[in-house]
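Input chain follows. Return structure tokens only.
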Amino acid sequence: GPGSGKGTQCTTVVEHFGFTHLSAGDLLREDIKSGSANGTMIQNMIKEGKIVPSEVTVKLLQLAMQESDNDKFLIDGFPRNEENRAAFENVTGIVPEFVLFFDCSEEEMEKRLLGRNQGRVDDNIETIRKRFNVFVESSLPVIEHYRSREKIDAGKPIEDVFKTVKNIFTVNDIFGILHFTVC
């Protein structure tokens, strides 16, 4: 969910395992700043805590992947719903082989989001609560879709969460399973 620490953990995974981290939210915010044709629509949807149309987000992710010289990616905050999942797999032809689910209470996520003070339009209590509702209604069914997922207690301190993440990555990399990861 929003504020579960997935972006923080992805940054550390990149440092240790050589993945390219792609944050769907960051790519959308960059598109807003660029003044693209979709920027205003994206900004309004983010303010409302809604999910941006799949074709917009998938196009941004696909472009970022194509522009990268890496073939190992962490995609953070995507897919957010079943439509996102299907669109991503259909357009890119990629089915994630490994999924991490950062399980964190709404109280802890809310505390983190309100405390991060990054000046984001979606970091206010009203939008945060909308994002939580969207997560429960739309994203949890996608998480259930992926049978090969690891559930991590993300309510612990950052270092403790990373110990678990590192162990999962190390074990799965040893067996050659880890080619594409969704965080």
